[in-house]
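Changelog-adjacent note: as of this version, every example in the card shows the full chain rather than a window. The one below runs 293 residues end to end.
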Amino acid sequence: MELTQLDYFLTVARLQHMTKASEALSITQPALSHAISKLETELGVPLFDRKGRNVQVNRYGSMFAKRVERAIQEITKGKQEIDEWSNPETGVIGIAYLNILGADLLPKLVRDYQLKHPQVRFELTQGNYELIYNQLDNGYSDLMITSERPATDNYEWRLIKSLPLYAVVSNTHRLADRASLSLTELTGEPFVGLDKNCGLKSSLLTRFQHMGFTLTATYDAEDLTTVAGFVAAGLGVSVLPRSEGLAVKGMAWLPIEEEGWIWEVGLYWRKDRYQSPASKRFIDYIESSSFQA
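Full-length structure tokens:
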């Protein structure tokens, strides 16, 4: 059963005349008759009582027409929704992002983009790295904003922002008054680490290994906000990006003397997945200099 057949059927049912219906549909009368006959054969019942070129919908046709009209209406609504969601000016952009970004970067990014495109809507999901990665990989979000670059060529990455990483200690720590420090000075200190699902963990481990020493984690927190809370409470030291979401009282931020301690935040998406015009325009926006910081 084809959508075209159903459209033909409703037109004939409305006009009650094969020739008039064929003219309205811009097809030949024999082609229309064949389509209706094929539909009746598929359904196993006649839909019309015929009197020459005049036709009258019978009880089977009346019952079927009610259902078809509803189906066509739903299909029309579906097409309109797809157009609205994908349209670059009125569409919906699904973004999954790390929890920490919800306090600062994400609200500003959404605000600035909607100033340019006020009718665009965002469907946002926040969580740890594993959650948002699954959200993207399973197709529930179009894009992901994270601090971890793709590990394979199946994904694209565009840098949004780079932030310096700081050594963080409590205000009462012996190093709290230092203007800066080398991370080697934290050797032997209780270290507040990160759970494997936190996007920053692998980056920190790589940098520590490059420096040739290991910090033993006394605690492993699930998110950066918890790390900040433990450090402020004097339960250890750590390394964090300085952002509004981590502005916890009782903590000292110390610049790191070694080079390369930068936290990158970027846009991430699958190469093999369809991106709507709305999502593509957002990617173009990120690729421009409009939000670089």
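Structural remarks: The radius of gyration is 31 Å.
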